[in-house]
């Protein structure tokens, strides 16, 4: 993933950014399904942080 | 990117971040709690009385104004404001008879269904009020609010410059790599990069909307002094007789914008109204349209709408900054998400600061070639 230069560097951050924009916008546009879309998409960047932290926490055997 | 411009971006990222970091930590800690201000006010018994029975009729606005005025008969009503989230809560500003601004009088909060008068506590007397003051102006009034706004703008520049320096730094590193076994500085750099880039859009939006909200006195002041003043100037007639009731004024304003709700009503003679015209300001009622304001000037003597208009784009931007800063537009799950993002932003702030503290000190050129180039000189 990292061997592909700049495009590889930006792939995941760009995806998280797009999901964030969709999530931030969704709940202002409506309720119900729009709220669910907001919660689901905005959770992804947080989940990415949590998963990376969990997998590489000091003392955990390397995955 | 040339090495020189990358160096420039690193300097921008380092200094904008360092200057705002102390204030940013205060904003993160207070903001984290303020996300749940409704819940906390409820727990502390600090929430306003908004009880009414289903189907109960609202009291006429005139009787609310009369009740408010009893609290301070020397003052006169200047402004009525309506809570978009809680239709039982009405704010009434009583001012000195000749006052045009909103400094010398007092606010009265009434339950619009029962007329129950709610004593407004000083901000310092409630937990949420205290945190809000700390968050908004560091207890230093207007100047502090402008300071926090500038810090917010620095934070926005810090997020953008952080994104610029992220790319070159991560060129040979996998997304989300956390090298905790490689010393304090590298561990903090990696955590800073992962958390920072993952939450960048949220941080940018919340920072920018926070800065906009900080400057709200300037923005509404500009609207009042330009478009609104031009509108009222087109109707300069003085008052010659008694005014119609506030309820007739409200009805006339609402009739000019079918399907809208009242946002606030300014009495003739204050800076948001004409010399003999009320300003009736209305909004929609969806999450989006409740942030779009329109205004009708209503002749106080005839109850007729003299002119109706929307508000300029910058007022819409200001109004829309509220939800995107507070995270209060998607229920409790969004509040929790907002709180988690705030924690992550706090971690980014602290790790960034640690990376700066642990920066390589001036060393010989050979040292720098040996390790400095490999680590990059992030932050």
Question: Which structural category do the helix and sheet elements of chain A fall into?
Answer: mainly alpha
Strand proportion of chain B:
5-15%
Kindly state the percentage of residues in helix of chain A. over 70%
Number of helices of chain B: 12
Task: State mean pLDDT of chain A (0 to 100 scale).
Answer: 89
The ordered string of helix (H) and strand (E) elements of chain A is: HH
Give the tally of structural domains of chain A: 1
Any idea what the radius of gyration of chain A is? 15 Å
Task: Count the beta strands of chain B.
Answer: 8
Q: Pairing-aware structural class of the strands and helices of chain B?
A: alpha+beta
The largest sheet of chain B is: 8 strands, antiparallel
Overall pLDDT level of chain B:
92
Beta strand % of chain A: under 5%
H/E element sequence of chain B = HHHEEEEHHHHHHEEEEHHH
Q: What are the low-pLDDT stretches of chain B, counting only 5+ consecutive residues below 50?
A: 370-379
Note poorly predicted spans of chain A.
Answer: none
Principal-axes shape call of chain B: elongated
Shape of chain A: flat
Question: What distinguishing features does this structure have?
Answer:
heterodimer, A: 63 residues, mainly alpha, 75% helix, 0% strand, B: 379 residues, 2 domains, 8-stranded antiparallel sheet, 12 helices, 13% strand, PepSY-ass_TM (chain B), membrane (chain B), transmembrane helix (chain B), PepSY domain-containing protein (chain B), transmembrane (chain B)
Summarize the structure in words.
The complex is a heterodimer of chains A (63) and B (379). By secondary structure, chain A is an all-alpha fold. Chain A is 75% helix and 0% strand. In chain A, helix 1 (6-29) runs antiparallel to helix 2 (33-55). Chain B is an alpha+beta fold and 379 residues long. Chain B has 2 domains: 3-42 and 128-203 and 210-214 and 326-375, no CATH class; 64-123 and 218-319, no CATH class. Chain B is built from 12 helices and 8 strands. In chain B, a hairpin with a 6-residue loop joins strand 1 and strand 2. In chain B, helix 1 (3-34) runs antiparallel to helix 4 (127-137), helix 1 (3-34) packs across helix 5 (141-169) and helix 5 (141-169) runs antiparallel to helix 7 (200-214). The longest helix of chain B is centred in the first third of the chain and has 32 residues, at 3-34. In chain B, 36% of the residues are buried. Residues 370-379 of chain B have low confidence and may be disordered. The chains are: A mainly alpha (63), B alpha+beta (379). The A-B interface holds A 1-2, 5-6, 9-13, 16-17, 20-21, 24, 26-31, 35, 38-39, 42-43, 45-46, 48-49, 52-53, 56-58 and B 166-167, 170-178, 180-181, 191, 194-195, 197-202, 205, 286-288, 320, 323-324, 329-331, 333-334, 337, 340-341, 344. Chain B: This is PepSY domain-containing protein. Chain B: It comes from Azospirillum lipoferum. Chain B: Keywords: Membrane, Transmembrane, Transmembrane helix.
